[in-house]
């Protein structure tokens, strides 16, 4: 019963932070205190609890190092013109009857290059919504398409902190996971292309506002050199260059281009690395501003805090009862269907994609280990459930924040096809990727 009370208080703290617009890191800090107190109540010493908490920190440090470079990239890619290049040429290739499809392809490309859903939503997403409003295209359809596109890379890009977190938790190879994520996303991606082609012809854009193009051309040198940082991130991982090294090289290239091509000073580029890129021009200020190490402050705090309290929960056996329930569920309906149910519940209760991923591994990872499942299977099941499902829960930050950026409501969710097609398609095709190894461990679905 004490664990139920702790989780109820934790949920209340999460809701309070969401309502008051406080950082969720405060709720996680509160949770750490709660679960530490729970451990003391159950008879564990403070020294033992600290050791339990610290046991999960090595995995979180892997993700924190990735976040450090993501912070650098998101600022420098803005200042060197990489984001502007994609938006400028993306808008120029838009034809009236293919606006929806181009919007999807552009956000998919940017999300894979950047590995951040919020970063793409706040840049290309804002521009595309402005074009949709001025061109008479359905806002709900456009926002749903953008939501699909931004989570393509958030789930399966080498630069994604979420993909790195999944790899770290499951002790799997990041590049191998990315390859399998592409394989398991092939069918839902193809279905999205068909759906968005149909929606494009049903929702043609009437006119394309040239104001944004003019503003980009005036503020940036739209040069092929701006593509270099993105090409580095696309090519080096394919050559098996370690992701942090590839990100460091990309950041260095963006730094040089900011100074030599865009005309910024070295001091400006150093400042952008820390606080992000913030142009003074009114139109662009709402589109390309952001990035830098400061933008990563919240996840920098949240991930280690979540790691600390999950270590305590695991070490004290506080989740044993919940794990027993999940084990019985997996025996009856299969591991992945159980993972989907857990994802829905965790996303609705915890309201945070990162915590959902960590709780999935914490609560059901032992079931996979007991059944003799490969670590890669657990990684793919997490990637194909909680990572995308969180984006469909209206009050979860993974959904609420992008929709707020785009200025639409829940009416956009039915058009976010990729987010629900990935778990649905994987539900029926998983047996081809990971055939069941143990009797009764994965029932037909």
Secondary-structure map:
Layout: H1 2-20, H2 24-41, H3 46-54, H4 57-79, H5 82-92, H6 99-114, H7 117-135, H8 139-156, H9 161-170, H10 174-202, H11 211-219, H12 228-235, H13 243-260, H14 266-275, H15 282-285, H16 297-316, H17 320-333, H18 335-350, H19 353-370, H20 375-383, H21 386-389, H22 397-406, H23 417-433
Account of the protein in words:
This protein has helices at 2-20, 24-41, 46-54, 57-79, 82-92, 99-114, 117-135, 139-156, 161-170, 174-202, 211-219, 228-235, 243-260, 266-275, 282-285, 297-316, 320-333, 335-350, 353-370, 375-383, 386-389, 397-406, 417-433. It is mainly alpha-helical and 445 residues long.
Structural class: mainly alpha
| Basic shape | globular
The domain tally reads: 2
The termini sit apart by 34 Å
Stretches with pLDDT under 50, minimum 5 residues: 438-445
Biggest sheet character: none
Task: Give the DSSP E fraction (strand runs of 2 or more residues).
Answer: under 5%
Kindly state the number of beta strands: 0
What would the average pLDDT be, to the nearest integer? 84
* Estimated helix fraction: over 70%
Strand/helix succession: HHHHHHHHHHHHHHHHHHHHHHH
Rg, alpha carbons: 22 Å
DSSP helix count? 23
